[in-house]
Specification:
Aminopeptidase; 2 helices
């Protein structure tokens, strides 16, 4: 797993992670500080993770979110599309 951090004035403000496995790139742990939301840092670290996944020769690039919540809408705006849905179970 590799982490990518975006900085603003020497202060870390956004992060993403990439795990590679057999041609699949899994992007996770994406987030940004509330103080910089809307300034492009979340988009930057997310798309950088995709770029690194491509450079690692992954064929597929995944990012999991919950439908109907802000992160899902954000990822849709920057080019991600829904390819599958999962069912969760909790006790």
């Amino acid at each position: 797993m590799r982490y990518f951090i975006a900085y603003k004035d020497d202060k870390p403000v956004a992060v993403s992670a990439l795990t590679n496995y057999r041609g699949h790139g899994y992007i996770s742990n994406v987030g940004s500080l509330k103080s910089v939301r809307g300034q492009g840092y979340g988009k930057l670290v997310t798309l950088y993770a995709v770029d690194q996944s491509v450079k690692n020769r992954n064929i597929f690039h995944y990012l999991g979110t919950e439908a109907g919540h802000y992160p899902n809408e954000f990822y849709t705006r920057i080019g991600f599309v829904t390819k599958c849905k999962a069912v969760g179970w909790s006790k």
